[in-house]
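Lab notebook, design round three. We kept the backbone fixed and only want residue identities now. Task for the bench partner: fill in a sequence for the structure below.
Input structure tokens:
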């Protein structure tokens, strides 16, 4: 029983060390040219190699890479956005008022 507990503890500690070693930069969320929000992510992502710990790309397309000289200076980007809940993010819409009654020459005002 003691041996089993020791193995479980060793496995847990090894797993935690692996995760903490793999942590890299955080790529901030951003709006692309079409106004679509892209959520930020921690490097490396699930499909990246463990050495892809640097946020690379451009202000409008970000990804994780291993080349430190290709690092994106996110501080120079003007389209950074962090939205807590994108489902309820503000969206542009129009409000109009329709007050025609029985008047056939009715106008719609915006």
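Proposed sequence:
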């Amino acid at each position: 029983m003691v041996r089993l507990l020791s193995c479980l503890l060793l496995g847990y500690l090894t797993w935690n060390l692996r995760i903490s070693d793999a942590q890299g930069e955080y790529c901030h969320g951003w709006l692309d040219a079409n106004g679509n929000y892209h959520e930020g992510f921690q490097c490396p992502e699930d499909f990246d190699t463990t050495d892809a710990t640097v946020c690379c790309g451009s202000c409008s397309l970000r990804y994780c890479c291993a080349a430190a000289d290709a690092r994106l200076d996110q501080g120079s980007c003007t389209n950074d956005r962090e939205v807590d809940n994108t489902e309820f993010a503000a969206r542009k819409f129009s409000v109009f008022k329709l007050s025609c009654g029985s008047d056939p020459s009715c106008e719609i005002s915006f």
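Keep this in mind before ordering anything: Residues 24-83 form one domain.
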